[in-house]
Amino acid sequence: MRTNNIIFSWSIRLFIPLMLLLVSSQLNAQNSMEATNKLDAGQQYMAGISALTAVGNIDSLTVQLNNGLDAGLTINEIKETLVHLYAYAGFPRSLNGLTAFMQVVEDRKKAGKQDVEGRNASLLPADTNMLELGTEVQTKLVGQPVSGGVMAFAPAIDRYLKEHLFGAVFASDVLTYQQRELVTVSALAAMTGVEPQLQSHFSIGMNTGLTKSQLEGILDIIEKNISKAQADKGRAVLSKITVKN
Fold first, then answer.
1. Residue 115 near residue 77 (C-beta atoms within 8 A)
2. Are residues 154 and 53 part of one domain?
3. Whether 177 and 151 share a structural domain
4. Where do transmembrane segments lie in this chain (predicted)?
């Protein structure tokens, strides 16, 4: 009887640590998964910067620009974000955003803040064919070649999209494709009347690795910085997307 008690006692001593280790491992795995499904601080401010630039709210944008730099975004990452936005929000909004950012950088320098400049874009080979490059990038992002429809109706817009946007703009590796889609989705979600494009870029964003939770996080930022009504429009569009992760 005593032997059985000893064996039982040792079994309990071994069982409890093993259970604690198992629970700890499960919690760590869950926390890791939750972390990857949420926007980090840099992504949040990049989304806010994009949304506010797209709607032209310069006062709030100035706050977001400062916060983004404080959160670790580099000067060149923010510059590239604002340049990228011209393709979706137009040159006036992009130029206004860049002008505001130029003032923010100047003011921070005067205040003694040392922001990281960040890397410059890699140089492309001199013989790069932008139309071929852009077609390849667009096909990769969308998941299939893009043709027909409005592209056939207006071939010029097809060429501009492939040669300039997906070619020259996307060729800059200051931002990753995923970051560019985060910027694009944030801008489109903030704007009215572009639901078809937003739906397309929700899908493209997922193709770059953005999760549904991260896209929902972008819409939370839209609610905070633009309006709940606008965020809800985006949520209605997102509900139509087949989840791929």
1. no
2. no
3. no
4. none
Burial label for 226, CB within 10 Å (0-12, 13-18, 19+), is buried
If asked whether residues 165 and 191 sit together in one domain, one would say no
Residue 84: give the domain boundaries.
Answer: 41-122+172-239
pLDDT tens digit string along 64-83? 999 999 999 999 999 999 99
Per the rule left: phi > 0, alpha: psi between -120 and 50, beta: everything else, 243 is beta
Q: Write out pLDDT tens, residues 19-41.
A: 444 434 444 434 433 444 699 99
Residues 46 and 109 in one domain: yes
Identify whether residues 235 and 131 lie together within a single domain: no
The reported pTM is 0.84
